[in-house]
Structure formats: structure tokens, C-alpha cells
């Protein structure tokens, strides 16, 4: 019999809509204003910290909803922003030296809903408020860092080829190698030119000097690599540290734009983004006297550094390995219950480290922690000058030839080992960065945008709803039910997709989807009317109306979906937000307008002897 849907198909439609409604439900609960306490330099919040915070808030009569302790962080929820701001000021004054005190908006989703994975949609910066940074990559430091790496590589390569030289040093923007005789100079020039084709080499036979400079192509490659790697590393770092769905994208030749929706306080964000740290492995210099170095006579090939407790260590300048080769790092305890960091290197790093340690068994090696901190000084091009702070975190004797996996100790506490592992896993910035522009979008402005967007969606929905009721009567009610289901499914899918973020242009995409969903129903209903006018029976008109309109609806939606995919692929920021909701809306509208309405129509009018339809 025509127009009789099997039970399983009807149940499937109901289950899909119910599933979408379940995951759309968290969006009704909103967010709580909150204050988050995160430890600085290895400090972790514990039960004593929780009790301390409770007592401080109670003494100052600051009401709070609840306090939770998780992963060494405290989260204090409030019922209103006034108490949130009072608590932030109080805790910042009393605990700001040990903890980063940041404002946050935390989902108020019930526990039972969160247990099944229900989370609200992530809102973009324009809807939720948050902070936006424009950061400039210090390209000069990237080039200098590459040159320092080449110094070490030149020395290693010449030693490997058994070519004798007097010195390898950096002079301005070039690397200068001095040889003992003309034969070594010729041999080195021939070898290095073949190995480093992106470098320009010039020789001076009078002074037995070979000078190397980077070509313009190589300089461009270094700058491009620094920018792209910093973008990747910043994105990984923010994700690792729990800032929800950041937008990190390139702007021009040396700038990076970072948007952090939902973050109200810039202090923690700056701490995360400005952390420009890495580690280096160097051999301890036992050939020269430490006391002589402490008196100011440090050998040219060595450097005097200090451990965290102030113990001096004389190190060789030659870098065995840098943090650029680290692909994974985690914290644990060694056999003596001391905190340690387990490190895994990439293949080139493992090979390089293996070669560097094969002849150093039984000798002490130091792990050097390096941070770049911005100063108030500027260079000739107006870039911020960064001070390099170096600190020895461990000195250990190499017991065996090291490879892709090894461990370092001396991190202090387990919390500090965890922080170091986190930073190394997220990646060390290729070049220092500085914030050149900072913009904060307040929650009130975001709320106004949400209200305006919601009014636009509801306004469009209401007009379409009224039109369909008047023009298509009972069938208009069916179309409106499908329209509501479509809206629920869009919100549910947006909530389920981890990377999906709703922005103001995304709301425009939803409004457009409302019109497209109704358009599909209009095509179907008009086709049914045509079939009825030609004298077909009611059941034949319904059946042929849906079948004939299906191909037209499919073609129109596929072409629109292709356009949305192209927008998402080549667009940035707002364009992507629009493309995401449009793509999801096209798929859900196809389901609700064709499959959904047909199930309802078949359930009400299908398989019955009818003389006319309320259409």
C-alpha cells in the first residue's frame, strides 16, 4: 500500500531527533561565572588550598555556589558576576604569588547530562566574549637561532670528514671558519658547498678563511618555518592547557592572531602564550678549572651557568641537542621516587643524540632550561629585545649511549616535572613572540550579540511558521514541526562536534538554513498540489509529489553544500563559522524536510481512503 512507512523507519526518525534534542539540551543551562586558580612554577592546589580559599571567601561574606579541585587546579563557581569579581580581587591579593587567578565562564550542565557527554555549543569570541591577541614573531631571533645551529653542524661535519680547522665563529650575519692550511680550506669548501646548497660560500686564501652566509631563499625559508611552527606550537600549547577552541591563524609575514573565546582574564592567557622555553643538552667542561672561570676567566669554548640552588657549572658551548627534536614528554618517578621527565625524540634527533653520546659514556652531561623574557628595550627595527635566561636543571653521568628515548631528573617537584613535560610536549617556540595588540570583548557585549542573533533566528522562524500555516494549513503544521526538529538537530550536532564553534556569521548560516528547509517543503507540497489538480488520487499525489521533488531538492542542496565546503576550505574566521553551520544545516534540513515530513505525513494520511488533503 502506498505511503505506509515501516515501523523501523519511523522509530529511526524519532530516535535521531531525540538524540539531537538530548545533546542540544545543555545549551539551555547557560554558564556560571567562575574563578580558576592554577599553580605557578610547579605549585599545585590541594585540599589545604581548597580549605584556605573557602575560609577567605566566608570571612569576606562572598557567596559562592561550589568549589571543585581537579588536576591541581581549583574552580570556584558563583551565581553572579559581582561575587566573581570580588573573589578574583581577594584571591589575587592573597594568593597571587603562588597561583594564577583567572576569570572564567564554566558550563552549568547537570552532572547526569555531562555524564553522557552533553556539553553546550562552543561560542566564538563575538558571542561569548574573550580575548584576542595579535602577536609578532621576532624573525631576527629565528635567524640567529638558525645560525647558532649551523655553527654546531659545521663543527660536527668537519670533524666527521676529518678536516682540521682553527676556529668556527659567528661574525655579524655570517659564519667564519679559519683553517690551518690551503689544502684544508679547499677540501672544506668543496664538501660544505655540496652539503649546504642554500648557503653562499666565499674563501680568502690569504687569511685561510671560509665565510658562509645564508641565501635569500634560505632566509625566507627560515622565517616561513618560524611562523608556521609557532602557529602549530601555540595551538598545541593552548589545547594542552585547556583553553577551549582557540582560533590561531596567520596575519601577514610575521604576525599571528589568537582568539580565546570565553576567557575573561588575560593574565593566564599571556602566561601560556609568552612561555618561550626549551631545553638544551651540553657536556660539562671538566678540562678547565671551575675556580678560574668563577674569577672571570671563562674559556672561549665554555660557558658558566648555575643550577637552581646556585651551584655553578662550567659547560661546553657546543650544543648536543635542542628541544626542537622532542616529539613527546611525560612526567613520572624514578626508582628512588624522585620526579623525572621521560623524553622521546624524532628520528633525526635520536640519531644526532646517539652520535653525540657514543664517545661520552662516563662523562657528565647537563640539561639546560632556557627562557626568553621580553624587556623594555627595542632594536633598530623597533622589535622587542628578549633576554635569554639559562639555568641548569640537572647534571647526570651518561651511563650508556642515548637514543630516541631517555629521561632527565632534577626537575624539583612532581608538579614542576609535569609543567616541564607539558611545555616540552606542546613545543618550544621557534622564535620569541611579543604581543603587539590586545583586545578584550566583554561578556555583556557577547550577550548582546547572542540576543540579537537569537532574535533574528526566532524572527525568521516565526514569519516562516505563520506563512506555512496560512498557505499550507495542516501540511504547514507538518513543515513547521520539521523546521523545529531541524533547528534542534543543528544545535545538537554543533554541540557534539569537538571543533565546531558558533559565531555571529554562524547564526546567519542558521537563518539561511531555516529558509532552505522550508524551500524543500514548498517544492514537495506544490508538487503534491499539481498531482491533485491533474486528477491523481490522494495517495498517488503524496507518493509522486515526494518522489518527483526529491531529485530537485537533492541537486539544489548538493550544489549549496559544495559551495559551503569551498568556503570552509579557503575561508578564515567568520567565513568558516558561516560555512560550518550552513553545511550542518543543509544535511539536517535534507533529513527533516524529506525523511521527517514524509514519516509524519504517512503516519497521519498515508494508506487511507481520502477524497482531499488539507493542503
How many strand units? 22
According to CATH, the homologous superfamily of the largest domain is Multidrug efflux transporter AcrB transmembrane domain
**What is the number of domains?**
4
Structural class: alpha+beta
Q: Quickly name the level 1 CATH class of the largest domain.
A: Mainly Alpha
Protein name: Protein translocase subunit SecD
Subunit structure: Forms a complex with SecF. Part of the essential Sec protein translocation apparatus which comprises SecA, SecYEG and auxiliary proteins SecDF-YajC and YidC.
InterPro entries: SecD, SecD-TM, SecD/SecF_arch_bac, SecD/SecF_CS, SecD_1st, SecD_SecF_C, SecD_SecF_C_bact, SecDF_P1_head
Function: Part of the Sec protein translocase complex. Interacts with the SecYEG preprotein conducting channel. SecDF uses the proton motive force (PMF) to complete protein translocation after the ATP-dependent function of SecA.
Overview of this protein structure:
The structure is a single chain. The protein is α+β, with helices and mostly antiparallel strands. The chain contains 16 helices and 22 strands. It has four domains: 7-26 and 442-605, Up-down Bundle (Multidrug efflux transporter AcrB transmembrane fold), CATH 1.20.1640; 32-107, 2-Layer Sandwich (Alpha-Beta Plaits); 140-218, Hypothetical Protein, Haloacid Dehalogenase-like Hydrolase, Chain: A, domain 2 (2-Layer Sandwich); 276-435, Gyrase A, domain 2 (2-Layer Sandwich), CATH 3.30.1360. Helices cover 49% and strands 25% of the residues. Helix 8 (216-240) crosses helix 12, helix 13 (443-496) packs across helix 14 (504-533) and helix 15 runs antiparallel to helix 16 (574-605). The chain is elongated, with a radius of gyration of 32 Å. The two termini are 22 Å apart. 38% of the residues are buried. Residues 303-431 form the SecDF P1 head subdomain domain. This is Protein translocase subunit SecD. It is a multi-pass membrane protein.
Amino acid at each position: 500500500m502506498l505511503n505506509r512507512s515501516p515501523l523501523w523507519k519511523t522509530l529511526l526518525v524519532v530516535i535521531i531527533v531525540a538524540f539531537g534534542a538530548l545533546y542540544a539540551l545543555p545549551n539551555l543551562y547557560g554558564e556560571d561565572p567562575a574563578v580558576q586558580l592554577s599553580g605557578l612554577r610547579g605549585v599545585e592546589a590541594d585540599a589545604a588550598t581548597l580549605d584556605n580559599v573557602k575560609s577567605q571567601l566566608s570571612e569576606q561574606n562572598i557567596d559562592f555556589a561550589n568549589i571543585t579541585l581537579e588536576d591541581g587546579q581549583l574552580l570556584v563557581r558563583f551565581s553572579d558576576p559581582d561575587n566573581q569579581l570580588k573573589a578574583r580581587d581577594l584571591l589575587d591579593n592573597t594568593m597571587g604569588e603562588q597561583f594564577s587567578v583567572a576569570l572564567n565562564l564554566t558550563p552549568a550542565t547537570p552532572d547526569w547530562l555531562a555524564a553522557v557527554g552533553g556539553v553546550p555549543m562552543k561560542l566564538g569570541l563575538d558571542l561569548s566574549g574573550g580575548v584576542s591577541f595579535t602577536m609578532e614573531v621576532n624573525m631576527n631571533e629565528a635567524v640567529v637561532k638558525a645560525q647558532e645551529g649551523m655553527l654546531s653542524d659545521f663543527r660536527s661535519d668537519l670533524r666527521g670528514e676529518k678536516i682540521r680547522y682553527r676556529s668556527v665563529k659567528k661574525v655579524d650575519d655570517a659564519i667564519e671558519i679559519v683553517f690551518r692550511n690551503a689544502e684544508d680550506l679547499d677540501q672544506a669548501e668543496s664538501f660544505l658547498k655540496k652539503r649546504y646548497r642554500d648557503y653562499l660560500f666565499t674563501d680568502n686564501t690569504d687569511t685561510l678563511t671560509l665565510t658562509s652566509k645564508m641565501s635569500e631563499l634560505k632566509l625566507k625559508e627560515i622565517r616561513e618555518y618560524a611562523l608556521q611552527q609557532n602557529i602549530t606550537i601555540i595551538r598545541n600549547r593552548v589545547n594542552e592547557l585547556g583553553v577551549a577552541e582557540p582560533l590561531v591563524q596567520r596575519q601577514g609575514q610575521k604576525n599571528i592572531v589568537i582568539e580565546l573565546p570565553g576567557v575573561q582574564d588575560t593574565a593566564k592567557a599571556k602566561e601560556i602564550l609568552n612561555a618561550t622555553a626549551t631545553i638544551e643538552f651540553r657536556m660539562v667542561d671538566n678540562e678547565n678549572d671551575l675556580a678560574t672561570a668563577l674569577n672571570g676567566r671563562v674559556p672561549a669554548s665554555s660557558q658558566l651557568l648555575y643550577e637552581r640552588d646556585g651551584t655553578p657549572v662550567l659547560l661546553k658551548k657546543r650544543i648536543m641537542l635542542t628541544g626542537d627534536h622532542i616529539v613527546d614528554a611525560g612526567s613520572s618517578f624514578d626508582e628512588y621516587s624522585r620526579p623525572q621527565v621521560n623524553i622521546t625524540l624524532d628520528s633525526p634527533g635520536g640519531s644526532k643524540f646517539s652520535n653525540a653520546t657514543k664517545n661520552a659514556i662516563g662523562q657528565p652531561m647537563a640539561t639546560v632550561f632556557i627562557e626568553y623574557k621580553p624587556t623594555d628595550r627595542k632594536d633598530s627595527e623597533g622589535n622587542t629585545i628578549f633576554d635569554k635566561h639559562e639555568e641548569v636543571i640537572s647534571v647526570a653521568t651518561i651511563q650508556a649511549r642515548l637514543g630516541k628515548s631517555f629521561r632527565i631528573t632534577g626537575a624539583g617537584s612532581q608538579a614542576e616535572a609535569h609543567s616541564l613535560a607539558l611545555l616540552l610536549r606542546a613545543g618550544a617556540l621557534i622564535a620569541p613572540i611579543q604581543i603587539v595588540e590586545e583586545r578584550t570583548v566583554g561578556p555583556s557585549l557577547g550577550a548582546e550579540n547572542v540576543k540579537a542573533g537569537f532574535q533574528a533566528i526566532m524572527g525568521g522562524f516565526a514569519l516562516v511558521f505563520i506563512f506555512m500555516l496560512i498557505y499550507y494549513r495542516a501540511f504547514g503544521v507538518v513543515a513547521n514541526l520539521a523546521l523545529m526538529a531541524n533547528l534542534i538537530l543543528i544545535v545538537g550536532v554543533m554541540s557534539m562536534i569537538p571543533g565546531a564553534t558558533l559565531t555571529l556569521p554562524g547564526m546567519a548560516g542558521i537563518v539561511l538554513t531555516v529558509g532552505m528547509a522550508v524551500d524543500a517543503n514548498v517544492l514537495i507540497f506544490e508538487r503534491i498540489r499539481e498531482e491533485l489538480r491533474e486528477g491523481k488520487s490522494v495517495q498517488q499525489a503524496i507518493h509522486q509529489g515526494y518522489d518527483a521533488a526529491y531529485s530537485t531538492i537533492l541537486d539544489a542542496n548538493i550544489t549549496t553544500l559544495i559551495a559551503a565546503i569551498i568556503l570552509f576550505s579557503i575561508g578564515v574566521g567568520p567565513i568558516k563559522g558561516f560555512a560550518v553551520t550552513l553545511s550542518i544545516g543543509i544535511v539536517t534540513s535534507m533529513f527533516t524536510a524529506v525523511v521527517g515530513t514524509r514519516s509524519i505525513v504517512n503516519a497521519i494520511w498515508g494508506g487511507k481512503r481520502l477524497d482531499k488533503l488539507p493542503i
